[in-house]
Amino acid sequence: MLEIKNLHVSVGGREILKGLTLSVKAGEVAAIMGPNGTGKSTLSYVIAGREGYDVTEGEVKLNGENILGLEPSERVAKGVFLAFQYPVEIPGVATMTFLKAALNACRRARGEAELQTPEFIKRVNEAAAALGVPQDMLKRPVNSGFSGGEKKRMEILQMALLQPKLAILDETDSGLDIDALRVVSEGVNALRAPDRSFVVITHYQRLLDYIKPDTVHVMAKGCIQRTGGPELALELEERGYQEYVAEEAV
Amino acid sequence: MIKLASEAEGAFASFFEEMQDKGAPKLRAAAWAAFADRGLPNRRIESWHYTDLKAALSKPAPLAKASHASPALPRAHDSLRLVTLDGVFRPDLSDLARLPEGVVAQSLRDALEEGAAEVMTALASADLGVDDAVVALNAALMQDGVVLRFAPGAKIERAIELATFASAEAAQSSYTRSLVILGAGAHATLIETVASLSKAPAQDNHAMAVRLGAGASLDLVTVFSGDAPESIRLLSLLAHLEGDAALNSFALIEGEGLARRQLFARLDGENAKAAFNGATLGRGRLHADTTLVVDHAKPHGESRECFRTILDQQSVGVFQGKIIVRPGAQKTDGSMQSKALLLSENATMNNKPELEIFADDVQCGHGATCGRIDKNQLFYLCARGVPRREAEALLIEGFANEAVETLDNDELRAFLSERVGAWLSRRIAG
What we know:
The complex is a heterodimer. By secondary structure, chain A is an alpha/beta fold. Helix content of chain A is 39%, strand content 28%. In chain A, the strands form 3 sheets. Chain A has a 6-stranded mixed sheet with strand order 6-9-10-3-11-12, with helices on both faces. Chain A has a 4-stranded antiparallel sheet with strand order 2-1-4-5, covered by helices on one side. Chain A has a two-stranded antiparallel sheet with strand order 7-8. In chain A, strand 4 (54-62) and strand 5 form a beta hairpin. The two termini of chain A are 36 Å apart. In chain B, helix 2 runs antiparallel to helix 6 and helix 7 packs across helix 8. In chain B, the strands form 2 sheets. A 10-stranded mixed sheet of chain B has the order 2-1-5-7-9-11-13-15-17-19, covered by helices on one side. A 9-stranded mixed sheet of chain B has the order 3-4-6-8-10-12-14-16-18. Chain B is built from 9 helices and 19 strands.
């Protein structure tokens, strides 16, 4: 599904990713764990195609196709979805207008017919009910005045509507209380499928109690330092990231 | 003997000679004296610092001549319409006979001939805009317009449109003044449309004086457009509110050339409320100026201003907002906000908020910002599959909607959203 090879990325002339290699198979849930400032969010932005991130070397392939030259919206059409760590507030743009523009843009790009309003509303309502998103939230402007938990639910709702092939969850657990964490995780688990992969970025093992990963990768200093199974997350929880960071001093 | 310096001001003197005996001679003479005393404002006049009218109006076009043509007039909404064409009120193009009970309309010309005291007093509009040369020139040269009176207690649901069109194929100047009087407790919805049917560079100076009696309420939507690059369009609103009156206004400015909308409002009774909101959509070389003076004269008044200016290509925006709180106007609550979105490197915005507060127990705030499309918002939309141009359009529309959504009237809100959408479609089409 996702093949990243020797990825080097600079932001404002400073190298953040230093030869990162990562492979995620179809249907796999890969957790990326690591301390602050190691480039986890940079990785998610580079995959999604944000401006200002200069790829100086390496490649990112989705199902065999290099996606680095594509516009962000084209990547979404190919199946990339990034759930933001900090979803952006857009006052003035109604949530339903936004959801419809997003869904129909993807459908157009994927060669599917645009959804008419009744069918669109039906789908949103189904997804909203499953995630406990109240109607009142759908009537407000995009993410405006939402609590942290509400924003994250809305991210998962968008993911459910867009049906991606590769979903990247960037610290989806930050700012969530236990109840919200459970709801959001159930939303993600409901979308797990043999042809859909997840990259779950987190600091803490806690999220992985709810979203069980197949593989765990430790990221530090701009690279993947170690790869293992779910037991690696437990080990990190116990011993921290010290040994991965400390090497820098050597 | 009045001495005017420039050739332009000489042309205005000849217009005044033509108009001075066409009703309200005293009012006209006083207004002319006020204008002649000042002349056209240049950049040294503070309230005209960003719009050099003297330079722009160096060659006044001839005074509009009445047209007897009956051109097809665009109609975008289901309202009763009163039409002024090329400076003359046209009963034949208007829905006079369909006006509901409680509303009386007549031409300004007829009203001036009748000389009813109520009309003459209201036309002088107390001392609103008295220092402004454009308002003075309008009063001195007013050719025609509409006088619209709502009886006390009349609640008129159907919107009434005061439409002012220019249709001449050659440049001309037209001066209209309309008067809207709402009796105590009356309610009305007005749409003020100012547009051009031709590409001729009109030089227009239109004014509307509104007087809201105690407890009266008026929703007013202004659509100010005109597509000629050399046109000079001046539009003034003089609003006088008595106690408990409420004025809720929204103005959309678009088109080309120089457009200045001025608002002079006085909240002259306790608990009066006024909202002056608006959006400007600038392309080409539009120079769009919104200048307002809101004068809180009595206690417990409330004023709100929410303006959004969107500027593309070489367009220039000006927002000057002054809130005055007089010594006795305690418990005034004022809030003014002007935000501009620049879509091009060559667009310019000038924001100038001013507060003059002479009472000590008031709440007044203002905010002015100027920026580009937010990169975080743009990336967020693109990261949901929305192509860049479409994402930009959504954000621009959302920015304008922050002002459009201040309107309570669903139909008018939808009408304005459609206008914004049409502007965006033209932008995308290039």
